[in-house]
UniProtKB/TrEMBL annotation:
The entry's keywords: Ion transport, Iron, Iron transport, Membrane, Transmembrane, Transmembrane helix, Transport, Vacuole
Listed transmembrane segments: 78-96, 139-161, 168-189, 201-220
Molecular function in Gene Ontology: iron ion sequestering activity; iron ion transmembrane transporter activity; manganese ion transmembrane transporter activity
Catalytic reaction(s) noted: Fe(2+)(in) = Fe(2+)(out)
Family according to the record: Belongs to the CCC1 family.
One BP annotation, GO: intracellular manganese ion homeostasis
Protein name, per record: Vacuolar iron transporter
Amino acid sequence: MAAATHNQLSNNSLEIPIYANDIMDSKHCQKIEEGENVDYFQRAQWLRAAVLGANDGLVSVASLMMGVGSVKEDIKPMLLAGFAGLFAGACSMAIGEFVSVYTQRDIEVAQIKRENSMKVGGENEEEGEKENLPNPFQAAFASVLAFSAGAVMPLLAAAFIKPHKVRLGVLILVASLALVVFGIVGAVLGKTPKVKSSIRVLVGGWVAMAITFGLTKLIGSNGLQM
């Protein structure tokens, strides 16, 4: 009887359940401890900035082309206005982003120096921390690409269409579809409702194009024309 009880206790003591989830969790924790985690927040911020830059390029150039199209039926003035908006906007975005990020970098460098001046061996830590600072040249280049990508869309939409009213209609349609896509992408990156975000971006683009169209037509009807 005692032997049977001893065997039963021995068998029970050996039955330790091991689940696959426990193994996966341990491996996941090990990867995090080894520093293999990815900074998805920083990546999302860059992507979100790119989407906003493309949206800005789209709305700016489309509004310019709509404004010129309200007083000129010829395609050449519309395209010239679109290209001028592309070049001016891309340069403005690049310079603005460069100055902004460079200022932020200088502030962070100064803060790092103040903190490391009070530490032992702070110079080595300072060099490592500087490597993780934002790059103003990279930010400026990314802004140019994002703005240009959005600005090219209305230019391509209207470049090969001769009838004036059809050209304006296609321009509005392409801009609207692109705005919806930008709104959805921005919502996904920002973890916000997709429908509300896309509608907000779309309505904002429509308002910008409508105001530019209406005011330019008003000015043009009063005698100030190209």
